[in-house]
Amino acid sequence: MKKVLFLLMFIASVYAIKAQRPEVVSVKATGDTAMIFTVTTQSYGGTYAPKHCLAIWITDNNNVFKKTLKLAASTYKVHLVKWNQMSGGNVTDAITGATLTSHTTHTVVWNGKDKNGTIQPDGTYKVYIEFTENNSAQSSIPDGPWTAFTFTKGITQTQNPANVNYTYNNTSKLVYKSITIQTFGTSGIDEMLNGGNVSIYPNPTSEEAQIRVSIPNDTKLSVTIYNMDGKIVHQFPSKVYEGGEHIFFWYPQAENAKPGIYFVKVASGLKYVTYKLIVS
Questions:
Q1: Which of 113, 188, 259, 271 has its CA 20 to 30 Å from the CA of residue 59?
Q2: pLDDT digits (tens, 9 = 90+) for 243-272
Q3: CB–CB of 111/28 below 8 Å?
Q4: Is residue 13 part of a domain?
């Protein structure tokens, strides 16, 4: 009975992780903008490690709070000191969940709007991230590691900021790594729409692959991932996608995909192209 219960809890946790990650992000030809932030957290050896609370949020360049993107904290969110100070605890439209039991890769998307649903003007913004493995709300305990990265809304750009360390018990620990910030702007989309194309990033990959498909007009697309035996390992929603760029996210580890060669098939009607994707 215990084995069955453990299995059910494991399966539920896997689906919960997948549910908190985007599957398809669309940057439409109408000039919609988006920011995609990806980061991997790592334990610093806190009291409750590897269990931890986490928050990711957006501010403007003057540190005025705009929107929480993700909160994994439940009743322990009080220990996310920096997030509470800046957000006032606001989680409108955020991805929310319980305290995390292990460290992993997080991917969040900002749709360019604030907590009230108002589209924000192009310009400089910051994405903040904080986590803690301690009861950081107590005055005798230091805040958990938090940091911020600056990006520009309204331009097409990919940034890979340096890893971030945190000093705990007089020892420097790596806490944030594999950081990517992607922004999309109208001018970049206009250039892209001159012709359709497909790219995969990163390739090889281990935790996350982005299959980017740009199309000049509304098109019915089917994107499928196969293994070497020709079996389907992941099928994305098959439907009509608007002209623009569409980013299909695949998480090999979350689906227990073994290291090796896979094939990505992008089809429209009877026409299709196939790309090789390596899982390391």
A1: 188
A2: 888 889 999 988 889 999 999 998 888 788
A3: no
A4: no
Q: Are 179 and 46 found together in one domain? A: yes
- Give the count of domains, the chain: 2
CB 177 within 8 Å of CB 160: no
Give DSSP secondary structure letters for 88-150.
Answer: TT--TT-EEEPPBSS--EEEEEE-SB-TTSPBPPSEEEEEEEEEESS-TTSTTSPPPPEEEEE
Residues 63 and 177 in one domain: yes
- Alpha-helix residue ranges (DSSP H) falling in 28-92: 81-87
The pTM for the full model equals 0.74
End-of-domain residue from the set 162, 183, 204: 183
Which tokens in the block code for residue 88?
Answer: 């006032």
Q: What gap in Å lies between CA 190 and CA 193, rounded to an integer?
A: 5
Handedness of CA 222, 228, 231, 233 (dihedral sign): negative
114 and 210 in a common domain: no
The tokens of 107 are what? 């991917």
Residue 15 domain flag:
no
Q: In this structure, what DSSP letter does residue 205 have? A: B
